[in-house]
Amino acid sequence: MYHAKAQGCNSYCQFTSDLSRDAMDRLLLENQLHQALVRDELVLFYQPQINVQSGRMIAVEALVRWNHPEHGLLFPDVFIPMAESSGLILPLGEWVLRTACRQMQVWHAAGLTHINRVAINLSARQFEQLTLPALVASVLKETQLDAAHLELEITESAAMKNPQRSIEILNTLRNMGITLSLDDFGTGHSSLTYLKLFPITTLKIDKSFVRDIETDHHAAEICASAIDLAHKLGLNVVAEGVENAGQLLFLRNIKCGDAQGYLFSRPLSSADLENFKLAL
Ligand code: C2E
Ligand code: CA
Ligand code: CA
Predict the structure, then answer these.
(1) CATH number at residue 178
(2) Is the beta carbon of 70 within 6 A of some atom in ligand 1?
(3) What is the value of pTM for the model shown?
């Protein structure tokens, strides 16, 4: 503000109008996101997760996109934070859950049972809802999908907001037969005690560590220690963001179980995933 004032009235006026334009753009996009849910403009893409040793696809992660009528395909970083602050994340998250479960049922009915499990991302806001287990149960019933084919990903930071409550809610979900993974592992602050108490099945090592695994010995050590720790706790590990063969070789050597990243495949439309064959 001082800077703008120092430059005279014109630049000050410019500053405020830019600010309100940003706010207007945001409001417009937020309104449009509301409509997007009604108009069926959201779409799920699916990214394969691969077993590092066998090369087989073990699961897919559903990632939401917005097919915007003017701006084209928008990525979640553009609209998920807005959905979170406006509360729209609740209906959006429910749509993601229902759509992914329905899609799995369609694939299985068509004999595509090698697509064994779908993982969906839960935002902290969804995870805080006491009604979450009941919602998941009702969507599984409605889509007639066995709970074993559904995985819920919750970020380390969301789980650590209220660890005691997380333990309870995760236990309820796990007792329903749902697979649970701790996403972006290494970026939050989870204590080893909680790691042991959370009834999770999988740790997903954040892609920032995997990216530097060959060049930064700290990143390599963190990946190796996380894998070691996970195995000692009886958990699976998925390394995220594997982009090249060198990273894969490194991960194989440190006995990483599963991996996900552009090296294997980018997130695919449901039709493209049906034809996905790993070619390494
Ligand atoms: P995430 O859960 O960590 O998902 C992985 C992100 O990494 C995806 O970005 C994916 O496309 C990207 N990725 C996959 N392989 C590679 C790779 O080899 N290199 C690099 N650099 N990136 C890779 P995307 O689809 O843009 O999603 C971003 C984030 O948005 C997700 O991060 C997740 O936090 C959030 N998100 C996506 N879909 C949903 C959803 O349905 N609900 C909620 N609550 N959040 C979602
Ligand atoms: Ca995720
Ligand atoms: Ca992640």
Answers:
(1) 3.20.20.450
(2) no
(3) 0.93
